[in-house]
Write a structure and sequence with these properties.
disordered N terminus; Growth Hormone, Chain: A; mainly alpha; globular
Length: 447
């Protein structure tokens, strides 16, 4: 598709040191998400006997952060569109630090479930804040890679959580407390790193604050840059109801559904990986941790690969191919749960690797398909929609393993992943090489 390049100064900007720093510190939110949602799976090994957790409390504690993500995304995406990206960019991390420390002192399942819910709200708030800020500063040539790096950061957080959890397990029966409290450390580092980040000039223009926007544009992109380079409509009103009007409803449903069908089985597997690997007889004692860590590396490798392919291959072919291989991998695990261990491991590794590109597109698609005045709201609402499925899947997985077994549990996951593939076949657009204005003007299936 031929594009209208509005500016060498903005949309065709080089990858400056500022943009690299912004990408790094914006990625901190997904890193914390991956860390916090993964470390609970390892902590549950000690939590279950110590706090005498039954299937209800195990599922609820595992899903509580996801439920919080739902609430945080839905509320604070809209708040971010109203009040700006910069202010909220710091506050949510301070909340994560406080709650992380409080988890060290819990004495009951209810207390832990409540704190996991609250920390989920803070993480959910960071999704629309940070991703909107990054999308609105990023040049089109690098936008896919910069946004894709957020997904890599999620899996990097999960890998680090696995390492920290493994090291802490040997410290005694209260190691789970230090596991849950350890997320305060990266959160504190991010607060320091994010300090001084400027407001999004696109958001400022959309609110009529043109003088402030021009100052930031010239600071970031150079003295040649002007507000015309942004190609951003001025003084547009933020109304979250627009997401459910005909112009944007298909986009909301498309991203919300494919994100849901991708993360519902993925988050459940991540949270209860020890139990799942044990059901497949992959290791005994703590040997499963090695397999778990290696599978995490495949998750990370898939997201890193997506950074290189998202612009070369294109958004649509990448997501269709990935969902196809994810579905086939999960189908094999469901049909032949008694296959040799090495073959089961290969299927898990394949599922993990091909989960990478959809994870990257979770961030790329909503930030490209919606305009500035509702971009954070869209990311927040869609995050909430996706986490409904993820929370249900995570809560239900312990029951599923107990009642229908590992094979049928994997078949249920296969069906969910297949629905994601069908959604993408029907609606997935191509936004490669487009400016934010061009991408947000796309109409899905106009006929």
């Amino acid at each position: 598709m031929k594009t209208t390049a509005p500016s060498l100064a903005v949309e065709d900007s080089p990858l400056t040191p500022f943009l690299k720093r912004l990408t790094a510190y914006t990625s901190g939110g997904p890193f914390l998400d991956g860390y916090i949602l993964t470390i609970i799976g390892m902590a549950l090994l000690q939590l279950e006997p110590q706090l005498r957790l039954d299937a209800f409390w195990t599922g609820l504690i595992g899903a509580a952060a996801l439920i919080g993500l739902l609430v945080g995304g839905a509320i604070f995406g809209y708040v971010t569109d109203l009040t700006g990206r910069q202010f909220m960019y710091q506050i949510d991390l301070i909340v994560i630090i406080i709650i992380s420390i409080l988890q060290i002192f819990v004495t009951s399942p209810f207390e832990l479930a409540l704190l996991r819910f609250l920390i989920g709200i803070a993480i959910g708030a960071d999704y629309p804040i940070a991703t909107s800020l990054l999308a609105e500063f990023s040049p089109r040539k690098y936008r896919g890679a910069m946004m894709g790096l957020l997904a890599s950061a999620w899996y990097a957080g999960a890998v680090v959580a696995g390492i920290i959890g493994y090291l802490l397990l040997a410290s005694g029966p209260d190691a789970w407390r230090w596991m849950l409290g350890s997320s305060a450390i990266p959160a504190l580092l991010l607060v320091l790193g994010r300090w001084g980040t400027p407001e999004s000039p696109r958001w400022l223009v959309s609110k009529g604050r043109t003088a402030e926007a021009l100052t930031i544009v010239k600071q970031v992109y150079g003295s040649r840059a002007t507000l015309d380079d942004l190609d951003e409509p001025a003084s547009e009103k933020t109304e979250i109801s627009k997401l459910f009007e005909p112009e944007y409803f298909k986009k909301t449903m498309f991203v919300g559904l494919f994100w849901t069908f991708q993360v519902a089985p993925c988050f459940a597997i991540y949270t209860f990986a020890p139990q799942i690997l044990d059901a497949f007889h992959l290791g005994s004692g703590t040997d499963w941790i090695i397999g778990y860590a290696v599978i995490n590396i495949f998750f990370l490798a898939g997201t890193v690969a997506s950074i290189f392919f998202v612009n070369k291959v294109g958004r649509r072919p990448l997501i269709l191919g990935s969902f196809t291989f994810m579905t086939l991998s999960m189908l094999f695990l469901g049909v032949i749960p008694d296959a040799p261990s090495w073959l089961i491991f290969i299927c898990f590794a394949a599922y993990a690797f091909f989960s990478g590109p959809p994870s990257a597109l979770d961030w790329i698609y909503p930030n490209e398909l919606f305009p500035t005045n509702v971009r954070a709201s869209a990311v927040g609402v869609i995050t909430a929609l996706s986490r409904i499925g993820a929370a249900i899947g995570t809560f239900a997985l312990p029951y599923s393993l107990q009642t229908v077994g590992i094979g049928n549990t994997m078949l249920i996951s296969t069906f969910i992943t297949l629905l994601g593939l069908v959604t993408c076949i029907i609606w997935a657009p191509e936004t490669k090489g487009l400016t934010l204005k061009e991408a947000s003007s796309i109409v899905l299936n106009p006929k």
